[in-house]
Every structure is written in structure tokens, then in C-alpha cells.
Amino acid sequence: MSTYEARLAALRAQLKKEQLDGFVVPICDEHMSEYVGDYAQRLGWLTGFGGSAGSAVVLSEEAAIFTDGRYTLQVREQVDGKHWQYVGVPQTSIADWLQDHAPSGARIGYDAWVHTKGWVESATKALAAKGAELVAVKSNPIDRVWAEQPQKSVAKLIVHDTQYAGQCSAEKRAAVAEWLTAHKLDSTVISALDSVAWLLNIRGADVANTPVALSFVLAHADGTADLFVAPEKVDDAVRAHLGNAVRLRDPSEFVPELRSMNGKRIAVDPDRAVAAIFGALQAGGAHIIEARDPTILPKAVKNPIEQSGHRAAQARDGAALSRFLHWMNETAYKGELNELSAAARLKAFRQDTGKLHDLSFDTISATGPNGAHCHYKVDESTNRAIEPNSIYLVDSGGQYLDGTTDVTRTIWVGPGQPTAEMKDRFTRVLKGHIALACAVFPEGTRGAQLDTMARASLWQAGLDYAHGTGHGVGSFLAVHEGPQRIAKFAGGQAGSDEPLQAGMILSNEPGYYKSGEYGIRIENLVLVEERDIAGAEGRYFGFETLTFAPIDKNLVDVRLLNTDELHWWNDYHAKVFEVVGPQLDGEVLAWTKEACAPLTAG
Hints:
This protein has 602 residues and is of the alpha+beta class. Helix content is 34%, strand content 20%.
């Protein structure tokens, strides 16, 4: 099955064998992960889509692929419109589409290990309105026809030392136990991979760029826990670290254990646990209490050790990025580079620190029209030459033991000058970035309330961008971490309504994208901190900027910046040089000093 058309036909043949009229295919794994292991890349195998968020529905005579605004361009380039309808979400949900397109009396299959209970309920209701039904499959039919499906990773677990975590696992489990006791609960299911990693202070290598291990945890009110993980992944060092209070169990025991909870009060997070977990607990007679994973908020609110580690990681990463930006300035205008070679060189600069564990995501290395794809992923088939007199966007990050980084810079590749439009758009994005960086807000403020600050200058020109403004970031964990985010609040979008708290780390990344021409984004990470304001009535917060690397002044229209914005630019770049300068020397130091020189009013 070398073609996607053949794969679609094979799936339809398999569905017919199983007496199914359709099947739903999300990008997901058993842990509701955003980024999944190769074995779970079923949507990509079936359609060719390479994004990190999307779903598909395959019916006997038609098929549709669902993506959000980040992938409007990408999905059309990667997925054949002859066989697939393109559907935008959240404008149209899978449930709504099924209600309109599924035949009366149809049996639509789904894998309960890759969908939430809430999704199952909404899809069931929508199909019932058509006289159709949603049917849980015993095994995923794509796995039946995917002959070369990768196996699950058997990479070893590693211990994440307290010198980086800032709190030992026993203390974290005790806090969960206290929460369980306060709510008269016996246990909670911890199914999100980064939650398992955070709770037990372990890391893994089962998902590209995210140091997590495929596993589940049952945490109990007595402070003990059961870790369900493949035994070959655990060595003596990990066993000693976990101690007697964490029982190691084979993954095959997970479902039977859930089914043995008769009469027990078990907390399960409906947003992070798949429907199969609810089904197993229900079949075993457990009393299920839906509640947010108790590790989510403590994981998001970084302790002082984690905050300090992030600052160290960001300073190290900023110096590596500064070296890259200098290298680009010296070489890119010659027209000899391409997106892949630039990304490889940036990775090498990070590796030169001697502390890089991994990248934190696949580098978005995008020149010209590729930059207009918000979440572009370069490969051999899309790789473009970085041409003189063009805009180049690079969104990248590193995984270090002391922190996770994520930074975007947009640079002008000379030797000519950018157009007036390019400078206008870049400066409007910059104004939004500065507005958010300088925000001061009262306790209880949600990310959605701040989102407009980053968009206001673009809106004034009739422009916008189709992605969130900020996401949470983990500590040597997921580069996208909840529950906080800064985004438009649309239909209860997860995280947009989460109050921001001191210790949370978020990205600040407004952008602008002109289809077929270029993309612009400026991204730093920021830490929520309490602000001491004389006479303040209540608690107030602001942001400490964590990311330090030069922003390209060649794309700035100084006339659009007011006095306060110029002060921010100059103060920020003075701090950049203070942080990264001591790590540089020679020509790189001289270039960085010039890149950080003050701007003056136009």
C-alpha cells in the first residue's frame, strides 16, 4: 500500500469485513497526548497529513479530514482533495458532520482508547438523531491493515533528580493523597504521560521531543501508587528511586485492575482519560467521580527550583540562538542555505552547549510562502532554498534537564530591504508582543482576557492570526502544557478560562501570515509573577520575560512604535546582551552587541 488511495481502500475493505459503515480516526494515543509515538500516527499513515492536531471520518462513499486554522494550508497540500473533504474546526465538529453525512442505520466504529467519554457521548447523540449508532471496536481496524506499523518504544525510564524537580515524588504523592482524602476518594487514574512523569519524577523517550514514557498510574489515598509500565523499561536505578511505595505492574494488568475497583470511589479526568478507562471502571462497579487530574495545576505552577532552572536553560538557549542568528546574518544572503540545512545548524548550536537532551519539538524552519503555514514542518519534499531578500521564520526549542525552551524569531534575509508592508506587519506583531509582555492584571484574570492585547494592533489594520497567543510550557516536559493558555475564548476552549497564577510559564507569540508569501511570529516565554503595586486593591500580576535573543530590527518600522514600546525594546535588548553576552566572544559577540544596540524614534 504505497499510496494513500490504496490505504483508504484497504481501510474501507476492513470496515466492510467488520460490518461497519464508517470509522473515526483522530491523532491520539491511549493517554490523550498531543504528540504521539510513531505507532499511534494512524491519521498520518492513512492520509499523509503531518500536523499534530486533526481527525478524519471514513465512510463507505466519502471521507473528511478535520483541522483547525493552524493547518488550513498544510492539509490542502498534504491530503488529496480528490478523496478527502476538508472540514474546519471548531466551526464544524465531527459529530455535526456525522449527523449530516452518515446514512440512516449506519454503524460508525470508534476506538475507545483514543477518544474521550465526552466525545463518545456527543457523537452517539448526533448519530442517534439519524437512526445510526456509534460502535466501539475490539481492536483498531487501521492496525489490522497497517502492515509496517511501528512497535511501541521500549526505551528505558530515567530518574529526574530533585535538584531539577525541586520536590521529591513522595511529597507530590502525599499532596495527591491529601486531595483524595479531602474529597473522600480512594484513588485517581493518572493517564496523561506528562502527569505520570511529573508525579513520579521520571522521564522517558517514547514520544519524539517529549521526555515521557508510555505508562499509567493509579495513585491512592494512602500515598502509594501503582505504575503500569513495560518491565523492560525499568532498571535498578529507577526501582530504587521509586521505592516500595510505588508498585511496578505490567501494562496488561491495567484494565483488570480497573475492573477490580468494585465499590471504590475513583477520580478520573474526563479531559485526559480515554473512554475505555471509564468503561473498564464502570464494568467493574467503581463509583466514578469526574474531576481534573490533581497533578495538573501543581505541575503548571513551577516551584522556585524549576523557575531557576528555566532561567538557566533559557540563558543557555538564548546564546545558542544568538550564534545561529549571527551565522544566518553572515551566510543566508548568499542563497546557499535551505530550510533543512538551517534547522540542522541551529540544532548543532544547541548541541554545542553540551547540555541539550533533545529538541522540544520539530523545528519550524520556514522561508517565504512556507512561513505562512503556522505549524509548518519541513521535510525533503517541502524543503525550500532560503533566497536573498526574503523573510525567514524559525520556531524552535530545546529540552534540557533544567528546563524546556520555545522561541520564535523572524528575520530578514538581505541584501536588499524588506517592503513597507512587511515592516508594517512585523511591527504590528511586535506591538502585540510588547503589549502582552507589559500586561499587569488582577488575580483571577484568564488568558482569554489578555489575548486581545496581542491582537489589537493587527485588528486596527483589519488583520488577525488563526492560532492562540500563548500556551503553557513544562519543566523538561511537554512544550505545550495546560491548563493555562492565552487565546480567544471559543466555546469553552480548554485553558482559555483558566485563571493565571504566579509560577505559570506561558509563551507570548502573536503572528501574521500572508498566504503564499511569508509568515511572521515573535515568541518569548514568560513567567507569571506577582507585582507589588503601591495602593493596589488586591493581588496583581505581570510577566517576567524568560527568553533572551535579539529580535531583528531590520523589520521594524520605528515610526509605528510609541515611546513606551521603544523603551521596552531597548530595555529588552540591553537585558539580552547582559544575559547572552558573557557566553559569546569574537565576531558573534560583536554582532550581538550591534543587534542589541538601542533604537531611536523615527
